C-alpha cells in the first residue's frame, strides 16, 4: 500500500519562459516525462528529475497549429504525439545523442570506479542527451478530444464524432476514420443484435483509455454517458467494433483503467468515481464499487468537491489517485479503502485554525515504481506559489511538484520501502538481546528502523523493488541491526521475486549471459556469488514466487504453476541445497492473461471432511494452491477422491473454486499450534472497502464426531479501522500503518511549500479483530465454536478489552436502532461472557464508556446492577463494586445508593482499601448534599475522571424505580447496615457528616477491640481520623486493656516485632533447664487465669508474699538462658521470617546493667536509674514485657505511680 511521506518537492526549469506547464505525460516505463506548455514541449528525466530537452514552437507554426493541448508516448518511447488546438497531430521523434553522449553522469571520488557490467548501465545511471525532431503534421480537420497509444497505432477521437486510427510512422495510407454512429451500443453483447441501441448522432468521445487485459476501450461521451468498445477482431475496423454502455449514468467526466484487476473507473460530475467490471459471460458493465468521500469523515467537503477531474492508477495498479475541479488529492486502494485526502485535517487548516485553499491540479501522473507523483498545478496556483517562494527570474517556477510515497509489501511483518530506503519493524534497538520471533507482536516499540540504501547500489539498480532490481541486495535482520551483506553479480535481474528458506535466499532471476531463466539459492552466511549458489534452469519466465515449508511454488508467464521440493544438505564445508521438480499444473484454461495473477500461495488450508480428524503432521502438508486472480480468490485442492497413488507421486489437483471476490491481500501461515488451531489454520483476506474476511475452520468439541450437515469452514466478514498490512495469527492482531501530519508554519511570516502542506510521517498501527469474529459466530448460532476460540485466546493481555468491545459494539447497534430487532444479540453476548471470570468487570467498564440513555437496554440483558454489585462484594472485587455503585447512583433513588455505598464503605474499611474509602466518603457526602427524590436531568456522556469517577457524579442522582421501598432483598441483607436517618434531619451536610463519623468511630472501636493498632494508625492517617481525641473519649471503655498478655502478643504480631533474646553470657540462673522454664510458664498462665498476677492492683498486696515458691526471686534469673538456647533462636530467626522470643525482664550485661527483683505485688528497682536508654515501656499494669532481640538495646522504665523501692536489693 502507498503512504505519503515528507514534503513535496518543486522542480525548477533552467529555461526562462513566461509560459506555465499544464500537462505531463509519462513514457511507458516512466523514465521520461513529456511536459507541455502552450508552445513548448519538454522532456524530463526521472532520476535525477532534470530537464533533458525542450522544443519551442515558432510563432508562425503556433498560429497555424494552435496551442498544444495533450501528448502521448509511443510504446517504445521513441516518438511523442502532441495534439494541437486547431486539429493537428504533431509527431516528434525522440533521437538519442549516441552511446557516449549524456547530459548528466555520476561523479565518483578518486580511486573509485563505477560498476559497468549491467547491460544498459549508462541508461540507468546517467541522464541521456536527447533531441526532438518534428515530422510532418497530420490535420484531422476537427478539434481533438482524446488520444490513446497502441502498439503500432495511435487512436485519436475528434469533436466531429470520429475515431481516427493513425500509424506512428505518419504515412497517409495508414489513416482510418470510424464514425461513432456506426458503432452499435447495447447493455450487453448478447442483446447487441436486435436490442436497444444508443442514438449517437452528434455525440463524440470526450475521454478514452485502452485496457490491455480487457482488450477494449473505455470511453466517456460528451453527454456524460459511459461505455466500453470491444474490437471483435485483431484489427480495429468500422464493422468489427461493438460497444456496451452503463445504464442510469449521464454525468461522466473522465476515465481510467486498471489492467491488473480488469476494472474501468469513471469520474462523475457529482464527485464520485464509479468502478465497473466487465462480465465475462454477457460482456455487460457491472458496477463493482464507488470511490467517494463520505459525510462521516469529511462532512464539510464531501458535496463541495465539484466534478472529478483526473484519475490516475499507480504503476502496480494497487491504488488510484483522484483530483477534483475544486482541487485536492485523494488516494484509494483498488477496492475502495480510503487512504489519504488533502481536503481535511492538517492539509486543509493551518495551526491557528484558518482554512487553506485546496491545491488546484491541472495534470498529474505517477513516476517509476510509484515512488513519486508528478503534479502540475493550475496557472493561478503556480503564480501564487511563485510569489510565495520569490523565485529569481533566471529560474522560473515550472509548476511541477513531486509528492513522495513509500510502499508496503505483503509480508508476515510490516515492511515499507521507498526509493532509497527501507522501513523495518525490528523492535526496540536499545535492547540488543531481544531476538524477534516470527510471531512476536513488537507492539511496545512504535518507531521504524530505517535502512538507507547505499548510493552505489542505487546507481545501477534504481528503482528498488521488494524483490530487488537488477541484481540482488540482501538485508539481514538480526539483533535489530540491518546490514547490507552483499550485492551479487550484475549479469542477472530478478523477475519473480525472492524469499527466505532455511538460511538460503531463493531468487527467480534471468541470466543475461546465458539468456536463461533460473532459480538460484544463495547461502545466507556466504557471499552472494554463484560459487555458493544452487542453480536450477527454468523453461519460462517466472512472474511470482512463494515458499511453503520445504516447497517452492512458481507461477510462470505461460500460466503454469510449478512445485519444487528443496532439501538442505551438509555434504561439504558449506551447507548446500538441492531442488527437485515435483509437479506442474497448467492454468491456461482459467487465466486469460498472466498479468492478472496478483499472488500465488501454497497452503495446508482445505475444505475436506477430514479437516477435523487430520493429524498434526497432515495439518502442515501443502494441500491447496490459492491464486488471487484479479481480485478473485481461487483455490485448487488435492484430488483425494480417486485411488491413492504411490506416496512419492503427488496427487493431482481438482478444478478451481472461487472463495471470495474483491480480494487485495491474502495471509496464511505454515506454523501449527494445537491450542490456537482456529487462528493458525484460517485464511485471512483484505477486501478494501469491505474490510477483512476470514475463512475460519470449524472443529467439533472434545473430538466428537462432526455433524454431517455442518460446514467445515465458514467465511466471516468484519470491518477494521486501519488498512491491514500483516496478520499476527497467534496474537489475534492486525498490523498496519497510517499517515500522520505535522503542521509547520513559515517562520518568516510568508507562505511556502512547508506552509501549504504539512509534513507527512508514517506510523505503525495495530487493531484487535477477535471480537468481530466472536460476534459473527454468535450471530450464526455457532456459540460452541466461539467459546473454543475465545478460550484459546483467554491468556492474551488484551482479552478483557476484546470482551468489552464486543459488548459495546452490539449495544450501540441494537440500542440505537430505529427499527425493532426481532432477534437481539445482546442477551446472547451477555450469556457468552458469563463463561469467563471477567464478566462483572466487562459489563461495568462497558457501561461507563456508554451513554446513560443506553444503560436500560444494557442491564435489561445482563441483569440488575444491584445484583451485579452484590456479586462483586461476594467475590471481594471492591473496585468493580465501586464502578457499579456509580451506575446505581444514576439509576436509583439516593436511599438505594446510600445503602449500597454504606455496605461497600464498611467492606473497604475492613479490608484496608484506604483510597476507596476516601472516594466513598466523598461519595456519601455528595449524596447528602445533593439528595433529591425526583430525578435530575439525564447526565451527559462525559467520561468520568481517572480518580474513580465520583467527582463527576456529584450532585446527581437518577431514579428509574418508583421508590426505595420496592428494593428487593438480594444476596446481602442491606437492612443490617447502617441506615441514614430519614426526615428533615437527613437533609444537609451536618447529618451526613455525623453519619460518616459514626461509621468511622465504629470501625475504630472494632480495630481497638481486636488490638489492631497498626491498622488503627493507618486508618487514622489515611482518613484524617482524630485519633487522640477519640482515645481520650474511649479511655474508660474500649481503650481499657483487660488482657495485657494477649494485647502485647497482638502488638508484636501486628508490627512484626521480635520477642527479646538474652545474650549468651548473661547471669547464671537456676532456670537454665527447659523443665524449670516450662513449669514457670505454666505457673504464669495459671496465675493469669486465676486473677492473681495481672488483674490486680500492684500496690495492694504485701511484699512478703513473693518468697513462697523459691529461694531466689523469680525475676532475678528469668533471662539467664542456657548457652545453647540463644544459638537455637538465632538459627530459627535466620531461616524464617520475622521470629519473636518471649522473655521476662532480664538484667543487662553491659556496665550500665541493673538488677531487678519483684514480688507478686511489688517491683524493686536500683537507684539511680541509667540515663542512656532508648525505649520507654509502661509498667502500670503488666510485669510481662516483650523486648527487642537486639542485645545492644536498652530500655527506660517510666513508672506512672510510686512503687516501693528496696535499696538493699540493688
From TrEMBL:
InterPro entries: Ric1, RIC1_C, WD40/YVTN_repeat-like_dom_sf, WD40_repeat_dom_sf. GO terms for biological process: intracellular protein transport; retrograde transport, endosome to Golgi. It holds the Pfam family Beta-prop_RIC1_2nd. The lineage of its organism: Eukaryota, Metazoa, Chordata, Craniata, Vertebrata. This is Protein RIC1 homolog. Keywords: Membrane. The keyword Ion transport does not apply. It is found in: Membrane. It comes from Oncorhynchus kisutch. Residues 771-929 form the RIC1 C-terminal alpha solenoid region domain. SUPFAM superfamilies: WD40 repeat-like.
Amino acid at each position: 500500500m502507498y503512504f505519503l511521506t515528507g514534503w513535496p518537492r518543486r522542480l525548477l526549469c533552467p529555461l526562462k519562459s513566461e509560459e506555465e506547464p499544464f500537462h505531463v505525460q509519462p513514457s511507458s516505463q516512466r523514465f521520461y516525462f513529456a511536459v507541455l506548455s502552450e508552445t513548448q514541449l519538454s522532456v524530463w528525466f526521472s532520476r535525477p528529475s532534470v530537464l533533458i530537452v525542450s522544443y519551442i514552437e515558432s510563432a508562425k507554426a503556433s498560429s497555424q497549429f494552435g496551442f498544444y493541448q495533450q501528448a502521448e508516448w509511443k510504446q517504445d518511447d521513441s516518438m511523442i504525439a502532441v495534439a494541437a488546438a486547431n486539429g493537428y497531430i504533431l509527431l516528434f521523434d525522440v533521437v538519442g545523442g549516441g552511446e557516449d553522449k549524456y547530459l548528466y553522469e555520476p561523479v565518483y571520488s578518486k580511486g573509485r570506479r563505477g560498476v559497468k557490467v549491467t547491460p544498459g548501465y549508462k541508461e540507468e545511471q546517467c541522464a541521456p542527451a536527447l533531441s526532438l525532431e518534428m515530422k510532418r503534421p497530420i490535420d484531422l480537420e476537427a478539434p481533438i478530444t482524446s488520444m490513446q497509444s497502441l502498439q503500432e497505432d495511435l487512436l485519436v477521437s475528434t469533436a466531429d464524432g470520429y475515431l481516427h486510427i493513425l500509424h506512428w510512422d505518419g504515412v497517409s495510407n495508414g489513416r482510418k476514420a470510424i464514425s461513432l454512429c456506426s458503432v452499435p451500443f447495447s447493455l450487453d453483447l448478447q442483446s447487441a443484435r436486435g436490442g436497444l441501441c444508443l442514438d449517437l448522432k452528434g455525440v463524440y468521445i470526450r475521454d478514452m483509455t485502452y485496457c490491455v487485459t480487457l482488450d477494449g476501450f473505455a470511453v466517456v461521451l460528451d453527454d456524460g454517458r459511459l461505455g466500453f468498445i470491444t474490437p471483435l477482431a485483431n484489427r480495429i475496423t468500422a464493422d468489427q467494433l461493438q460497444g456496451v454502455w452503463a445504464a442510469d449514468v449521464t454525468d461522466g467526466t473522465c476515465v481510467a483503467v486498471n489492467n491488473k484487476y480488469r476494472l474501468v473507473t469513471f469520474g462523475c460530475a457529482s464527485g464520485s468515481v464509479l468502478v465497473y467490471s466487465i462480465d465475462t459471460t454477457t460482456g455487460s458493465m457491472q458496477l463493482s464499487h464507488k470511490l467517494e468521500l463520505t459525510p462521516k469523515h469529511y462532512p464539510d467537503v464531501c458535496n463541495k468537491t465539484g466534478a472529478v477531474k483526473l484519475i490516475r492508477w499507480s504503476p502496480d495498479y494497487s491504488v488510484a489517485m483522484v483530483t477534483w475541479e475544486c482541487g485536492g488529492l485523494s488516494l484509494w486502494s483498488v477496492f475502495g479503502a480510503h487512504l489519504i485526502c488533502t481536503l481535511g485535517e492538517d492539509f486543509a487548516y493551518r495551526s491557528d485554525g484558518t482554512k487553506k485553499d485546496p491545491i488546484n491540479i491541472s495534470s498529474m501522473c505517477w513516476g517509476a515504481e510509484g515512488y513519486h507523483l508528478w503534479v502540475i498545478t493550475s496557472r493561478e496556483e503556480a503564480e501564487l506559489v511563485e510569489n510565495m517562494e520569490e523565485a529569481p527570474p533566471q529560474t522560473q517556477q515550472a509548476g511541477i511538484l513531486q509528492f513522495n510515497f513509500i510502499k508496503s509489501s505483503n509480508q508476515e511483518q510490516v515492511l515499507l520501502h521507498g526509493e532509497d530506503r527501507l522501513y523495518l519493524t525490528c523492535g526496540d534497538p536499545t535492547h540488543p538481546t531481544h531476538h524477534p520471533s516470527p510471531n512476536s507482536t513488537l507492539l511496545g516499540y512504535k518507531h521504524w528502523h530505517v535502512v538507507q540504501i547505499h548510493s552505489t547500489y542505487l546507481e545501477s539498480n534504481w528503482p528498488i523493488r521488494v524483490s530487488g532490481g537488477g541484481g540482488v541486495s540482501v538485508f539481514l535482520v538480526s539483533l535489530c541491526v540491518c546490514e547490507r551483506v552483499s550485492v551479487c553479480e550484475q549479469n542477472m535481474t530478478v523477475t519473480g521475486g525472492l524469499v527466505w528458506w532455511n538460511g538460503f535466499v531463493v531468487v527467480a532471476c534471468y541470466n543475461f549471459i546465458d539468456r536463461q531463466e533460473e532459480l538460484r539459492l544463495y547461502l545466507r552466511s556466504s557471499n552472494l556469488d554463484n560459487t555458493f549458489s544452487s542453480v536450477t534452469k527454468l523453461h519460462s519466465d517466472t512472474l511470482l514466487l512463494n515458499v511453503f515449508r520445504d516447497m517452492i511454488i512458481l507461477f510462470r508467464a505461460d500460466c503454469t504453476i510449478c512445485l519444487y521440493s528443496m532439501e538442505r544438505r551438509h555434504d561439504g564445508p558449506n551447507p548446500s541445497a538441492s531442488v527437485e521438480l515435483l509437479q506442474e499444473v497448467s492454468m491456461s484454461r482459467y487465466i486469460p492473461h498472466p498479468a492478472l495473477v496478483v499472488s500465488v500461495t501454497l497452503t495446508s488450508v482445505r475444505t475436506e471432511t477430514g479437516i477435523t480428524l487430520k493429524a498434526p503432521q497432515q495439518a502442515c502438508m501443502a494441500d491447496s494452491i490459492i491464486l488471487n486472480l484479479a481480485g478473485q480468490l481461487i483455490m485448487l485442492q488435492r484430488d483425494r477422491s480417486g485411488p491413492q497413488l504411490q506416496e512419492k507421486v503427488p496427487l493431482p489437483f481438482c478444478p478451481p473454486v472461487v472463495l471470495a471476490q474483491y480480494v487485495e491481500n491474502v495471509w496464511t501461515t505454515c506454523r501449527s499450534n494445537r491450542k490456537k488451531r482456529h487462528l493458525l489454520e484460517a485464511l485471512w483476506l483484505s477486501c478494501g472497502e469491505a474490510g477483512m474476511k476470514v475463512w475460519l475452520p470449524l472443529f467439533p468439541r472434545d473430538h466428537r464426531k462432526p455433524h454431517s450437515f455442518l460446514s467445515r469452514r465458514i467465511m466471516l466478514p468484519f470491518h477494521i479501522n486501519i488498512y491491514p498490512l500483516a496478520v499476527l495469527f497467534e496474537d489475534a492482531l492486525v498490523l498496519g500503518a497510517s499517515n500522520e501530519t505535522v503542521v509547520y508554519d513559515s517562520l518568516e511570516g510568508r507562505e511556502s511549500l512547508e506552509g501549504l502542506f504539512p509534513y507527512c510521517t508514517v506510523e505503525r498501527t495495530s487493531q484487535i479483530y477477535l471480537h468481530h469474529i466472536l460476534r459473527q459466530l454468535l450471530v450464526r448460532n455457532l456459540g460452541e465454536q466461539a467459546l473454543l476460540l475465545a478460550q484459546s485466546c483467554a491468556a492474551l493481555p488484551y482479552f478483557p478489552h476484546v470482551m468489552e468491545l464486543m459488548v459495546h459494539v452490539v449495544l450501540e447497534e441494537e440500542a440505537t436502532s430505529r427499527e425493532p430487532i426481532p432477534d437481539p444479540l445482546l442477551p446472547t453476548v451477555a450469556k457468552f461472557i458469563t463463561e469467563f471470570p471477567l464478566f462483572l468487570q466487562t459489563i461495568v467498564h462497558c457501561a461507563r464508556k456508554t451513554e446513560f440513555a443506553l444503560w436500560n437496554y444494557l442491564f435489561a440483558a445482563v441483569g440488575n446492577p444491584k445484583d451485579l454489585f452484590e456479586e462483586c462484594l461476594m467475590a471481594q472485587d471492591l473496585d468493580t463494586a465501586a464502578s457499579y455503585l456509580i451506575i446505581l447512583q444514576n439509576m436509583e433513588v439516593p436511599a438505594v445508593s446510600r445503602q449500597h455505598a454504606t455496605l461497600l464503605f464498611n467492606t473497604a474499611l475492613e479490608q484496608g482499601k484506604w483510597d476507596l474509602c476516601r472516594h466513598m466518603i466523598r461519595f456519601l457526602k455528595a449524596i447528602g448534599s445533593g439528595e433529591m427524590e425526583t430525578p435530575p436531568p439525564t447526565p451527559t456522556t462525559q467520561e468520568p475522571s481517572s480518580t474513580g469517577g465520583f467527582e463527576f457524579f456529584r450532585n446527581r442522582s437518577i431514579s428509574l424505580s418508583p421508590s426505595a421501598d420496592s428494593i428487593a432483598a438480594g444476596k446481602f441483607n442491606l437492612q443490617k447496615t447502617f441506615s441514614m436517618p430519614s426526615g428533615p434531619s437527613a437533609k444537609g451536610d451536618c447529618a451526613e457528616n455525623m453519619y460518616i463519623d459514626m461509621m468511622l468511630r465504629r470501625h475504630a472501636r472494632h480495630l481497638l477491640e481486636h488490638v489492631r493498632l497498626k491498622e488503627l494508625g493507618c486508618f487514622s492517617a489515611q482518613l484524617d481520623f482524630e485519633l487522640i481525641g477519640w482515645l481520650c473519649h474511649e479511655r474508660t471503655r474500649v481503650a481499657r486493656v483487660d488482657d495485657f498478655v494477649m494485647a502485647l502478643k497482638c502488638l508484636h504480631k501486628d508490627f512484626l516485632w521480635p520477642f527479646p533474646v538474652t545474650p549468651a553470657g548473661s547471669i547464671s540462673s537456676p532456670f537454665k533447664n527447659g523443665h524449670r522454664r516450662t513449669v514457670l510458664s505454666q505457673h504464669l498462665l495459671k496465675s493469669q487465669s486465676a486473677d492473681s498476677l495481672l488483674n490486680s492492683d500492684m500496690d495492694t498486696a504485701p511484699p512478703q508474699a513473693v518468697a513462697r515458691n523459691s529461694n531466689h526471686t523469680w525475676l532475678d534469673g528469668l533471662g539467664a538462658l542456657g548457652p545453647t538456647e540463644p544459638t537455637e533462636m538465632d538459627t530459627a530467626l535466620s531461616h524464617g521470617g520475622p521470629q519473636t522470643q518471649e522473655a521476662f525482664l532480664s538484667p543487662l550485661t553491659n556496665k550500665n546493667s541493673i538488677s531487678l527483683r519483684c514480688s507478686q505485688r511489688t517491683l524493686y528497682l536500683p537507684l539511680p536509674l541509667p540515663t542512656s536508654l532508648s525505649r520507654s515501656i509502661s509498667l502500670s499494669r503488666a510485669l510481662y514485657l516483650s523486648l527487642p532481640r537486639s542485645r545492644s538495646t536498652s530500655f527506660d522504665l517510666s513508672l506512672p505511680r510510686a512503687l516501693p523501692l528496696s535499696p538493699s536489693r540493688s
